[in-house]
Recover the amino acids of this structure.
């Protein structure tokens, strides 16, 4: 079984899918988020095509651990993903993943449009890597 990590955003949603052993990130994608029905259908298609058995959706928490309006949106999104795919969906604390993704891209000279098109996939990879490490423990 593979696991999918999702970094949900207003404009773009990052997707990362593990390898079969659930040990590393195997592939990534970025999907437009403006049309929720299409986004959910694309996620369901990717999950089916890649034999995904579980999904981890990033839950943005404040640094003090509290949840704001964005976390509520992600909870609603995760529920929709679960209903659409029929797969178990886990929420995973994504504090600082976007900041870390930008730092990683800066270290590798990704700037401008190239960064904009990549940062969500990197953030999804970080969410998935964190969740996979948790499962191994």
């Amino acid at each position: 079984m593979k696991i999918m990590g999702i970094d949900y955003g207003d404009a773009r949603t990052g997707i990362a899918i593990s390898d079969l052993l659930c040990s590393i990130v195997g592939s990534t994608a970025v999907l437009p988020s403006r049309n929720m029905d299409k986004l959910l259908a694309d996620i369901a298609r990717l999950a089916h095509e890649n034999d995904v058995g579980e999904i981890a959706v990033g839950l943005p928490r404040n640094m003090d651990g509290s949840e704001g309006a964005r976390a509520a949106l992600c909870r609603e999104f995760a529920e929709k993903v679960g209903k659409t795919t029929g797969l178990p969906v886990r929420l995973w604390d994504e504090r600082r993943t976007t900041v870390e993704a930008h730092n990683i891209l800066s270290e590798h000279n990704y700037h401008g449009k190239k960064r904009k098109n990549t940062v969500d996939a990197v953030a999804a990879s970080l969410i998935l890597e964190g969740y996979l490490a948790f499962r191994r423990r």
User: Anything to note?
Assistant: The helical segments are 36-49, 69-85, 97-107, 112-116, 119-136. The first strand starts at residue 2 and ends at 7.
